[in-house]
Specification:
single chain, mainly beta, Ubiquitin-like (UB roll), Porin, 17-stranded antiparallel sheet, three-stranded mixed sheet
């Protein structure tokens, strides 16, 4: 059979399927749910995303809503939903085309005099159950690091959720003023956390659990010796609201993530500290095919300014600053992005991006503020479950140099 024959057969089958569809009328209920095209994804994942069951009422106006719910899994690049009548009643028919979800990512980069190379392997549909597993190893001129990252949005098909991370580092931390290093210390640590939780609402999840940090700190070069880090145990919690709708090259709507963790001497910690942060972002389509996004983030530390600081720089909110060179105890950052599609081949979308980052931070009584305009591009692959790859160039009033930063957007 030739390719022309296959296309003709597909057209005939599609026409037959359309002919068999039947509009839902007021008072109709679902008798069964039929899922097709899910070669790797479990049927239960698709049905669970729909949020309806046999016996529930259905009408034509609800079909686009159900389609968007399945698309929001970010596992499929095409979803079609229709109803058809059978002897048993009205069947809800779902047809999907899967994206590739096992992604090896080579990592190469250079920023502020540091170079790095490594590999990350990401699976967003582990065992066909919409579970996320990421493993990475990176070598850089500042040291080595690796992590394991796991997310389960539905434990055993229930409303239970789970997050777990293990991070291992042996690298030099460098504080910068602009792009000049003014302080450095070597940080060796293993940081592990396991947080079970509960989905409180369709888009809202709360996770709480223990964490442990095994850490060693020592002086680097001519910098003063840092405080001893020791071993710390405590509790961590995060609250996540995922209200965004997935589209081909951007996610529209609100997203919120707030987290806090506190080291407790009562559990055997060498010292006490609290770290908390929050991120809120809202994206929306504008001017037809364009998109605008506003994000606000905050960071707060109650602990040692060297050991417990957040390391910002080289990412949205702090582009134009040396990567991880901005140490903060308190910080507020904002980002305004504007994207325009400039090329849309069949395999994806390339966008041009303009942005302005701004923020203010304090560390050890020192205040830093900045505004960083810049631009870049994003590459969105249609058939791969990895939203964006890109490169940004920004100039910051605090860094005063044109700085590149690589972008890897995930979920």
């Amino acid at each position: 059979m030739t390719m022309q024959d296959l296309h003709a057969l597909r057209s005939v089958l599609l026409a037959a399927a359309i002919a068999l569809t039947s509009p839902a009328r007021a008072g109709d209920t679902i008798s069964a749910i039929d899922v097709q095209g899910n070669t790797r994804t479990a049927r239960e994942v698709v049905v669970g995303a729909l949020g309806v069951r046999p016996g529930d009422p259905i009408d034509d106006e609800s079909l686009p809503v159900l389609r968007q719910r399945v698309l929001n899994l970010r596992l499929f690049h095409e979803v079609e939903i229709a109803t058809r009548r059978s002897d048993a009643g009205l069947v809800l028919s779902v047809s999907v085309k899967e994206r590739w979800t096992l992604i090896p990512l080579p990592i190469f980069g250079a920023s502020g005099g540091a170079t790095q190379a490594g590999l990350a392997i990401i699976e967003t549909n582990l065992l066909g159950r919409h579970k996320l597993l990421a493993i990475s190893g990176i070598y850089s001129s500042r040291g080595q690091s690796g992590f394991l990252y796991y997310r389960d949005p539905s434990l055993l098909g229930t409303s239970g959720v789970l997050a777990a991370e293990v991070l291992a580092d042996d690298k030099v931390r460098e504080r910068a003023e602009g792009f000049d290093v003014v302080q450095a210390w070597r940080d060796r640590r293993v940081d592990a956390s396991v947080r079970p939780g509960l989905r409180l609402a369709p888009h809202l999840a709360l996770r709480v659990g223990p964490f442990a940090v095994f850490r060693e700190s020592r002086a680097e070069g001519a910098s003063p010796a840092p405080p001893p880090a020791g071993t710390n145990f405590g509790l961590a919690a995060d609250l996540e609201y995922q209200g965004q709708d997935y589209h081909e090259w951007f996610n529209a709507g609100p997203y919120l993530l707030a987290n806090v963790r506190r080291s407790l001497p009562e559990l055997g910690s060498d010292r006490g500290f609290t770290q908390s942060s929050a991120l809120a972002t809202w994206s929306m389509p504008v001017a037809g095919q364009h998109a605008v996004s506003l994000a606000v983030a905050g960071h707060l530390v109650d602990g040692n300014p060297v050991l417990d600081a957040f390391w910002l720089g080289g990412r949205p909110g702090t582009r134009g600053l040396r990567a991880e060179g901005l140490w903060v105890e308190r910080a507020v950052t904002t980002t305004l992005d504007y994207q325009i599609p400039v090329w849309r081949p069949s395999w994806g979308t390339v966008t041009a991006l303009g942005f302005v980052d701004a923020g203010v931070s304090t560390w050890a009584g020192e205040r830093t503020s900045w505004v960083a305009p810049g631009g870049g591009f994003r590459l969105y692959l249609r058939n791969v479950a990895l939203p964006a790859l890109g490169l940004d160039l920004a100039w910051s009033t605090a860094g005063r140099e044109l700085a590149p930063s690589f972008f890897l957007g995930f979920r």
